[in-house]
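tool=predict chain=A
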Amino acid sequence: MHVDTPTVEQMLDRMQQQLAPFCESDPSVVMIGIKTGGVSVAAALHEALGIQTPLGELNISFYRDDFSSVGLHPVVGPSTLQAPIDGKHILLVDDVLSTGRTVRAAMNEIFDFGRPSRITLAVLVQRDGHELPIRADVVGENMNLSDSAHVQLNTNPWSLDIGERS
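tool=predict ok
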């Protein structure tokens, strides 16, 4: 299945509308994208919302707990958080929320940088199949997919490819 550019842009618009009140009520809000797809989504939202604090990027490879079970070979790279996060409201952004393990790893890393007052999770796609009790506060689209389905975000132009893992 392929989700085209206008549909993905509608999903981003929905997210922007849901996030706008957070940005209006707290001009010091900090947006952080999870590498790789979450950074692209966060960059688009950061610009559209006119957030003044620098956009942060998390590389959570080191924090994953499922390397051995899914055969991941982490490429541990740097995370970039240029704004202080102690006492700040964090808007954590990812492209797809599936099992919840990526978000759990991201929160672990965030707390290594400081203690935010609040974390709001925003995802382009929230799918079923959660393994951890993690749900997004802001969602572009909820999708009911088989456990073997894979969602891939393309950014230039925006689109989603959804297919079965082999």
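The helical segments are 5-25, 37-49, 67-70, 101-113. The beta strands are 2-3, 30-34, 56-58, 89-97, 118-127, 138-143, 149-155, 158-164.
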